[in-house]
Design brief:
Elements lengths: L1 E10 L2 E3 L5 E3 L4 E9 L2 E9 L2 E6 L10 H7 L3 E6 L15 H13 L6 E5 L1 H12 L6 E5 L15 H15 L13 H15 L2 H5 L6 E6 L11 H18 L4 E5 L5 H4 L1 H10 L1
Parallel strand pairs: 6-7, 6-8, 8-9, 9-10, 10-11
Antiparallel strand pairs: 1-4, 2-3, 4-5, 5-7
């Protein structure tokens, strides 16, 4: 069961995400409300002018992290942002899985009074594809940012498992400094690793989901998703990433594809370029 509480219109010159980050709001009115579903609470922010657009974050990212991109898009879109369970100002959950995160997106989409453009970053792109495939007619178009890629090989192999585990343990330790802020991530290193293994499996079957979508789709992809280093697994990861996009375009030649000279952090480092592509698309 899903319910929404206290739709709270906040008119004024500034907006805050609760961690000290604020920005000028001009004359726009922002609405902040909370959705309760599946035992979790999801904070939602909506505001701007123009066509409706939902911006879905990815694993380890929050609406606070996507703040710059959201602000740019609000110039000509009515933008909805939210936090997935265990991220930002959303509550923690008993379990974290692809289907659980998909249910979060579904709960947010159910509250809308319009057929929006659905923009997803990383895991959010995969969620967007699955949502659109399962709910025909509820999305005007899709914009997928560095995710939902049918890569020919899984990223996490048995040989690289210790390296990935150490990486996520290090990241979880760094995230402790952001506990209690709008940028916090409550998932453990093991939960993040398990989710990445699940995402590998989801992407191995995602072409079937694309085939069920009859809406326009734009891809915004990084040229070096794993960085531009010449040593270690980065070159193989980057090659695998590009091969996945090429595979997708062969199967779905109507897709519009845009490449940015960036790594997987492109949504933070190249927000103006991404906003411009979305406007043009």
């Amino acid at each position: 069961m899903t319910k929404k509480t206290s739709a709270n219109e906040v008119a004024g010159p500034r907006e805050s995400y609760g961690d000290g980050e604020q920005t000028a709001r001009d004359d726009r009115t922002m609405r902040h409300f909370t959705i309760h579903h599946d035992g979790v609470t999801l904070p939602v922010t909506r505001g701007g002018h123009g066509r409706a657009l939902v911006l879905c974050p990815g694993l380890n990212s929050t609406q606070a992290h996507l703040h710059e991109l959201a602000e740019l898009l609000r110039r000509d879109h009515d933008v909805v942002t939210f936090d997935l369970r265990g991220h930002g100002l959303a509550s923690a959950a008993d379990q974290y899985s692809f289907e659980a995160f998909l249910s979060d997106l579904t709960a947010v989409m159910a509250e809308l009074d319009a057929v929006p453009t659905l923009v997803g970053y990383s895991l959010g792109a995969d969620l967007a594809v699955h949502y659109a495939a399962e709910h025909p007619g509820t999305v005007a178009e899709l914009v997928l940012i560095d995710g939902a890629n049918p890569v020919p090989e899984p990223f996490i192999t048995e040989a690289l498992l210790p390296e990935f585990r150490a990486m996520w343990e290090d990241q979880a330790a760094r995230q402790d400094a952001e506990r209690g802020t709008a940028r916090q991530v409550l998932l453990t290193a093991q939960e993040i690793l398990d989710l990445n293994l699940e995402i590998d499996a989801v992407r191995s079957r995602i072409l079937d989901r694309y085939r069920k979508i009859d809406r326009p789709i734009s891809l915004i992809m990084s040229t070096s998703m794993a960085g531009d280093g010449c040593e270690g697994p980065a070159p193989r990861f980057n090659q695998n990433w590009r091969a996945g996009v090429e595979r997708l375009v062969r199967d779905q030649p109507h897709l519009a594809t845009y490449w940015l000279d960036a790594d997987h952090q492109l949504v933070f480092t190249h927000a103006p370029a991404i906003a411009q592509i979305i406007r043009s698309a």
